[in-house]
Target: Alpha-D-ribose 1-methylphosphonate 5-triphosphate diphosphatase
Amino acid sequence: MNSPSLSHDVDSGVFCLANAQIVLEDRVVSGAIYVAEGKILDVVEGGQCPVGAIDCDRDFILPGLVELHTDNLERHIQPRPKVDWPHDAAILAHDAELAGCGITTVFDAMRVGSIPTGKGRYLKYARQLSREMLALRAENALKISHFLHLRAEVCSETLIEELSEFDENDRVGIVSLMDHTPGQRQFRDTEKFKAYVMGKSGMNDAEYQEHFDTLLDLRARLGDKHETMTVSEAARFGAVLASHDDTTTEQVVTSAGHGIRLAEFPTTVEAARACRDNGIAIMMGAPNIMRGGSHSGNVSALELAELGLLDIISSDYVPAALLQSAFRLAKLWDDLPRAVKTVTKAPARASGLSDRGTFEPGMHADMIRVRTLRYMPVIRGVWSHGRQVG
Model:
């Protein structure tokens, strides 16, 4: 960041947002941010508004949000139970929604590992959907940056086969080890698992019991093998390996042994403390923050935030909640830069991205303009690589 005396000619290919409150890593400064060729050129403190600059009227300027785990694309491809939506239309709608929420980089979560038999079956979809996503990206049809997050479900019949269809050219940035065996992790309470599954699928008691038994059998026969193979496949892709719903210290120690450095949604304080002790970044869901607790009855993200055991926020299933939860944390911590880091620099670095998430010169010019209304952030502009997309 240069001195207030520095100025740039905004008529020579330089784009400028001025008269703004710019959220840096450790403080908020009044000034202007300059962009050239899609990259951050400079941040200049002071109240000047050069001719040709956009006057932000004292709004906040934040780095674009980085989303590591969202189920939002799946919601678009199946907006109602048993309703399949055309994939191109779903991807474009998903992309536009995220851009409108200030998310400029996303790791789209897609499940790999299917159960093609029985009442509780779920079918393969990730390979075809990802090809369509990559094709739209190649045609410059997408507003924001998309990477893949493969959610490897170990309780499945086809996980290794499905992972084998991907390679290092598929922009697989994250692979997470998922284990939804009832009775542990997210669903330690099997009654909550039963209510969730029956409510979502419309199973009767007999069908549910068959599904329950199938999952336990798959975990017993294939779970350990699938975990080992998934770790190997993530290395083949060059992807970051993540754990999901760690509950106990023992599970975290196992995660650390796999080389995991990102924990998605630990369910207890015990697991979160173990993550901290093992150098594993802790990610919690924005809906947990906005609702004041977990819908599954697990640990509150706000409790972890108060204990200093929260590093990253994910929107999970509500894209707009990512920015909203950051401002909720800013109020809790009385520290806006610290809160903003949980949705910008911290997720970028945890996913291996060093070219975004801050306003240092040379970084991608991913930016959002925000005004607060009774502590609620209202987005007034979004830029991805210097191009306005919202």
Notes: The chain has one domain: 64-357.
